[in-house]
Structure formats: structure tokens, C-alpha cells
Amino acid sequence: MSSPVPAASSFSSPLAVDLERIKADIHALAAIGHNDADRGIYRMAFTDADMEGKRWLLHRIEENDLVPASDGAANISGILPGKVENPRVFVGSHIDTVPCAGMLDGTLGVVIGLECLRTLRAAGVELERPIELIAFSDEEGRFGGMFGSEAFTGALTPEKLLSAKDLNAVLLSDAMLEQGLDPKRALDARRPPTDIGAYLELHIEQGPVLDQSLQQVGIVEQITGLRSWSLKLTGEANHAGTTPMDYRKDALMGLADFAHEIPRILDENGGEHSRATIGKAEVQPGAPNSVPGTVVFSLDFRDPSSETLEALSQAFQKALAAISRRRGLQFEVNVQGDIKPVPCLPELADLLEAEAQRLDLRYRRMLSGAAHDAQMVGRVAPMAMVFVPSRGGMSHSPAEWTAWGDIEAGANLMLGALHRLATQETLPTSTS
Predict the structure, then answer these.
(1) Where in the numbering of this chain does the Peptidase M20 dimerisation domain appear (predicted)?
(2) Domain of residue 308, CATH code
(3) Rounded to two decimals, what is the model's pTM?
(4) What is the pLDDT of residues 295-341, one digit of tens each?
(5) How many C-beta atoms lie closer than 10 Å to residue 59's C-beta?
(6) Phi-psi region of 138 (alpha: psi -120 to 50; beta: other; left: phi over 0)
(7) Residue 431 confidence class, pLDDT cut points 50, 70, 90
(8) Whole-angstrom distance, CA of residue 402 vs CA of residue 206
């Protein structure tokens, strides 16, 4: 059962965002953590630049007569009150970055959410329920990713809070303490699912589909699942000159065999949207005249189907076992992350599509191949996403960009959707 979504013709909003304000906010936030040498932005979670960005956002929230708030996970909120306290409509993303980032990933969703709230406030729109802008902490993964939205949804565990560390072995808890934050308070950031009426997130696509098809916006129907493994192949280090080829237990050759198996495994066990990547490898002892005795490497694989992810998991392990037997190796698999696929609520996607039609936008419904905070929220509450094009499919790079016209189109789509959700007597829900 689901609540009906009003047809596009039954709703009309004369409101529109101010693109110049959006531009000013994007450029202002991009200056925080900017590196002149490589033009990248360095605003990684719980660094000084990240905390400066959070303070900037709180200041902008206060300047626009919204109610500022933060929680134990250092998620930043700005609230536009409504007639009732809960459930409320949330809109957001994140403002932390990867190293050498561009200015839009995550940031665009937060800035557009801010613009939507101040536009509604300035217009004096009477809301049935509050709209809360939220900027989640550490989406990008300095300490594993999704920290803020995990805390928000109650998925954060004391174990992760105490054990999570970055690539330089800095503990999450130590990084928070250094910024004057009490890590234990992050466990208190959970919101009851009944308080979350809906969550919307706007994000750059981070892929080429919208750009190549000349669409202005994408309406996400599902967010792909992701499994990340750290793998270790152990053979025997030996002299490169004196060890005959048929006597070797070469761990790097095992990795090469496995890498060549990936296309076959995807063909036989995957689907149209399956992806698998070996993005990092470390060879030991790492000497030119030594047979590699150990290789530690990563495997990232994704699919929108949980069943397909499990089939790929089994196939990858079967291939590793066969290669290890053939080459005299041992293998270990350590699961680093397991993010399950999450569908967007169909009724919310339909509402976004109705708004896109009302605004006469070029759009398509599509899959998200990247993980987002929306994926965490979607486990406990109704969720939907809007994509805007990434020029050339670029992301996580200073070259990432979206045309201002497409940003304006996405922002007005989000504004109309938030207006509808916050002024309707009932919210789209689904119990199926």
C-alpha cells in the first residue's frame, strides 16, 4: 500500500532559486581547504579544514534565519520550522572531501538544500512539517565512510567508533578528540525512523550518462550495493636469479591470474550493472631481484542486486582458491565494507518525475553506481535522489564540473519537491 502522489497538474509553485547565491556559496566553501599548487580541495573528515567548513555552514544557516543545530557525530543541521515537530522532511549530503577534490561532490547537495530553505523562508511559505537541511560527517571515507549518516540512522556501533582509523593509522576517536569532540556522543546522534518523513539528496552523477545523453537531471531509482575486500596472497619470497620458474610460489603472478579472471566472473555471475576493480596492490618484499612472496590488494565490487553480489562473492573466492592451489599460495579475505543495495521509494521518485515534467526538464530515471548518505537513510526511511550531469563524467578531481544551467535546473526541481512534501497533509509512504 502507498499514499498517492498528486499529479503535476494539481500543484504549481511560482518559487525559484537564486543561482547567484548558489554560486557565491559554492565558491566560498571551495576556498576552505583549497590548495593552490594542484587546485584541489583538501577538506577531509575531522581535519581543521573540515571543521572550518562546518563552522562556515552554521554561520550561513544562522544568517538566513534558520534554526542551527549539530549532533554528537558533528552532523550540521539547519531547520525551517513547520506546524508540527515530526515527522520532518530532510534534505542534505556532505561537505567533507577526498584529497585533491573538486568543488561540487557533496557540497552541491548541501548548498542547494540551504538555498531551498532560505527561498521558502523568504517567501513566507507555511509548512505542515519542518524541513531540515543536514550535512553528514565523513561520507567520503577517511575513516571508512558514511560515519555521519550511520550515526543518524543508528547503524554506528561502539566497535567502529573505537577501531576505525585512516590510512595513516589515525584513530577516528583521536581525530574527534583533537577537534574538541567527544566521540561517545556520536552514538546519541540517532534519529527515530518515525521522525524521518522523507529524505532527498541532490548530487552530481559522478559518471557520464547524463552528460552524454544531454539530460538536465537524473531521478535515481536504486543505489547500488558495494562490497570492499582486502585480499592477501602469500607464497614464498626467493632469489630472482636462482629460483627456477617451476619452483616458484610467486604471489604477484597469483594476483595477475586473478585480475584476468575478473571479466569472466562478471560475465558468468554478474549483470548489466556489475563492476569490479582492483584499485590498490602492495608487493612484498618489493625488490627488483626478489620473487614476490606476498601481495596485499583491494577488491571493490558492486551491483544493485544482493543476490548478484553474493554470487560474485562466491565466484571470486572460488577463483582465488583455484589459483592458490595451482601456484602453491595461501589466500586471505578480509571484508572491509558491505553496503547493501537500497531502492529509492517509488512514490518519491514519481513525485520528482512529476516536478521534472512540470518544470519541462530533460530527465531520465537511472541507477546510482556510487554509494551516498541516502543509501544509509534509505534503510530506515523513505528516500530519493536527484542527479545533475558531471561534465565528461569527472568526479573526485579538480576537473569535476556541472554547468550552471544544470545546477539551476536541479535546484529548482529540489525546491519544488521540498515545497510539495512539506506543505502536503500526508507524505508518500510505502509498506510493501
Answers:
(1) 225-323
(2) 3.30.70.360
(3) 0.87
(4) 999 999 999 999 999 999 999 999 999 999 999 999 999 988 888 89
(5) 11
(6) left
(7) very low
(8) 10
